[in-house]
Amino acid sequence: MQLSEKQLDLLKEIGNIGTGNAATALSTLTGKRIEITVPSAKIVPIERIIFMFEQPEDIIIGIRMTVKGDIDLDVLLVLDRRAGKKILTDLLGSPCEDITQLDEMSSSALREIGNIMCGSYITALAEFTQLYLDPLPPELSVDMLVAIVSEAVLSRADYEDSAIFVETELSVEDVKSATSQMFLIPGRGSLEKLFSRVGA
């Protein structure tokens, strides 16, 4: 799918609104001043997602939220090792030595961070499009990037060839903390329905 500049600007604007709401929620949760920006938003071919990363066999944190309603989509938030450790340290004040050995508190915290970040984007998307979107509780995975991405796109790849990529940068107390990647992997006909609702 080829998108116009107007459509790409719309995706970025929705991202800015969603991440702004997420930053407010995370600031309230942690008592720290948090900002989240969206340097880029674009459409990427589903089969190329894993090639956007230098080390597709690296162990990463994936937080996946399935959305039902007027359209179906999966939202996948990807944090590499450094980003995962930094977020846990900066936001919770509890150092994380190994993301493959997360305790229950760290796992719950990452789910909640994913819930806030993915959920805020979904809420912004729903408000922009006036579509009914019903997110399910997020699922947390710590595995190789290629395994997490493959599982996320497997059920969609037969009939959908594009995903929305949103890059986010998170700063805590004016210090850049981490960069994360969010992918919106649409169900059948979802992208067309989304853009038709906003006249893009």
Structure description:
The structure is a single chain. With 200 residues, the chain is α+β, with helices and mostly antiparallel strands. It has one domain (5-197): 3-Layer(aba) Sandwich (Chemotaxis protein chec). It is built from 5 helices and 7 strands. It has helices spanning 5-30, 81-92, 104-129, 145-154, 190-197; strands at 34-45, 59-69, 73-79, 133-135, 139-144, 162-172, 175-186. Strands 1, 2, 3, 4, 5, 6 and 7 form a 7-stranded antiparallel β-sheet that branches. A hairpin with a 2-residue loop joins strand 6 and strand 7 (175-186). Helix 1 (5-30) packs across helix 3. The model has no long low-confidence stretch (mean pLDDT 84).
- Radius of gyration computed on alpha carbons: 16 Å
- Sketch the topology as an H/E string, one letter per element: HEEEHHEEHEEH
Q: Give me the CATH architecture, please.
A: 3-Layer(aba) Sandwich
Report the major sheet.
7 strands, antiparallel
Q: By helix and strand content, what is the structural category?
A: alpha+beta
CATH superfamily grouping: CheC-like
| Number of helical elements | 5
Number of strands: 7
Q: Count up the domains.
A: 1
The helix fraction, in percent, is 40-55%
- Quick check: average pLDDT? 84
> Which regions have little confidence, pLDDT < 50, spanning 5+ residues?
none
CATH class: Alpha Beta
CATH topology value: Chemotaxis protein chec
End-to-end Cα distance, whole Å, is: 14 Å
